[in-house]
Amino acid sequence: MRLAILDKGHRFGTKLLFGIIRLASRHPVLDVVKLAQYRPDFYGAQAVTHEAMRGPSAWSVADRELMAAVIARTNESAWCTTAHSAVAARAYRDRAKVDAVLADLETAPIEAPLRATLRMLRMLAKTQTVDADDMRAVLAAGVSSEQVKDALSVAFAFNITARLAEAFDFAMAEPAAFDSGAKYLLARGYR
Amino acid sequence: MSNITQAREALVSRILEGKAEASSAQRRAAFVNAVADGPLRTLVDKVARHAHQVTDEDIAAARASGLTENEIYELVVCAAVGAAGRQLDAGLAALAAAVGEK
User: Fold this and answer.
1) Using the 8-state DSSP alphabet, how is residue A171 labeled?
2) Contact indicator for A97, A87 with CB cutoff of 8 Å
3) Other CB atoms within 10 A of residue A32 CB
4) Distance CA B31, CA A160 (A)
5) Tell me, what DSSP letter sits at residue B63?
6) Contacts with A130 from chain B: Cβ below 8 Å
7) pLDDT digits (tens, 9 = 90+) for A79-113
8) Chain B: residue whose CA lies nearest to A43
9) Cα–Cα–Cα angle for A73, A79, A83, rounded to 5 degrees
10) CA B10, CA A44: separation in Å to the nearest integer?
11) How many Å apart are CA A39 and CA A90, to the nearest integer?
12) ipTM, two decimals
C-alpha cells in the first residue's frame, strides 16, 4: 500500500475489527478491506458495488463477477483480476470457464450474449468509450437494454476499484486469502 | 434491472462536497482530470487513463509538492470515480443512440 494511512491509519474500533477478521479468517486483512474501511464516510463505494453486483439483474452473480474480472484484467489490475476470478470461479463452480475467458474471450465456452457484452466492456475499459455500433452488436447478440445497463453498472464499480488497487498498490495476497474473500462476497455481498 | 443512480450520486456528492482535506476546487479538478501542471497532474492523469502505470515516485512527488496523505487519497479517489463515471456515461449514451432514444 503506497499510503501509510490506508495501511495503519484506521480508527481504533476499525483496528479491533481487523484483529477479529484476522483471527476468524486466519488470513491477513485484504487491502481492499483496508481501503473500504478507511474514511467510509468519504469514499464508501460499497453501496454502488453491492447494487451493481448483487442487485436485481437478468445476469447471474457469476456472470457479473466474470465481468468484474474481465474489466480488472483490461485495466491491468492483477490484484482485482485474481480477486474476482476467484469469486466467479466459485459462483460458477467452474474455474476452467473463468480461466478460458481470461485467456481468450473469443474461444471461451460461454453463450453469445455474455461474450458480446464482455467484448463491449473490454472496449470501454480499454479505450474509455464505446459507440452506437458497439452497442448494436451487443443488442444483436440477444442482450436486452436492461442487461447492457446492468453490465455498465458493473463496469462503473470496477473501473473505480481497479484504478484504486493499482494507484494505491494493493499487496498481492495468497490464493487461500482470496478464496476466503470470495466465500464472504458470495455469502454477504459488498455491503 | 439494478439501479446504481442514487448510490452513484451519493458517492459523487460525498467525494466532491463532503468533509475533506483537499479543497473542493482541487477535488473537482481531479474528478474531471483537469489539474494544473505539476506532480499532481501526472498522478491524476495516470489514475484516470492507466492507473497501473502509477509508481511509488508519482506518489512521492505528490507528497513532496506539499500534499498530505489524506489529500492524495482523496484526489486519487476523485480521479478514479470521475474516470469511471465518464465511461459509464459514454456507454449509456451509446446505448441510447443504438436503441434510437434521444
Assistant:
1) P
2) no
3) 18
4) 12
5) H
6) 90-91, 94
7) 999 999 999 999 999 999 999 999 999 999 999 99
8) B15
9) 90
10) 10
11) 30
12) 0.96
